[in-house]
Amino acid sequence: MDEMRQALDLGLPELGLDLPEKRRDTLCRFGRAVVEQNRVMNLTAITEPSQVANLHLLDSLTVLLCQDLSGKTVIDVGCGAGFPGVPAAIACPEMKLTLLDSLGKRMHWLETVLPELEVNAECVTARAEEEAFRRRESYDCAVSRAVARLNILLELTAPFVKVGGTVLAMKGDRAGEELEQARNAVRKLGLAFAEAKTFPVAGTSHTVLVFRKVSPTPPGYPRRYAKIKQNPL
What we know:
- The structure is a single chain.
- This protein is α/β, with parallel strands linked by helices.
- It contains ten helices and seven strands.
- The chain has helices spanning 3-15, 21-37, 49-61, 85-91, 104-116, 128-134, 150-157, 175-181, 183-188, 225-230; strands at 73-77, 96-101, 121-125, 139-145, 161-171, 191-201, 204-213.
- The protein has a seven-stranded mixed sheet with strand order 3-2-1-4-5-7-6, with helices on both faces.
- A hairpin with a 2-residue loop joins strand 6 (191-201) and strand 7 (204-213).
- The longest helix has 17 residues, at 21-37.
- It is globular, with a radius of gyration of 17 Å.
């Protein structure tokens, strides 16, 4: 058994997750595909097999411990190499996943590799602040990891989510600080903070901030990205 699979098998019980052999195999196949493609395309700085298992695969699976995504429409905003959306979809194939990123080369690679892994996902190349107007309030859940500070991230994700849905924002050890700075954004975007769930990942703590969509996001949001960055909510 290789290092990636060993680390995955060790980490799943720590998270309280159990997956069938086939899904574990597919997760590692995806992890290895990322490492291989990284030789010709900038996908990740993490390439050591056990670290890929811990910091990409297991970390991504924490979203499944924050909400039952089975049968739900989910959009991964700024998915990059496919995290957290692809591992979550491998572990929970009943979800209906859309992967969104502005870099066409990454999305073309995902469109190529995912059918080989029998992973169903819609791959969309677009900027989040533009695509949000075409897909406004049409998803049960938006997930995102390592895209931007929370007050910026929420403006990019909340408009995609239906009233009654959720935003799952994956953050590191500064999650509490970012949450305090995003109170105004939470209120203006029609969200309510629900909970922060912290998980042990490779000796560190990673936090998923859970927000409920309690009212429609006002039509003026999201703004152009330059405006969002210049004047965060």
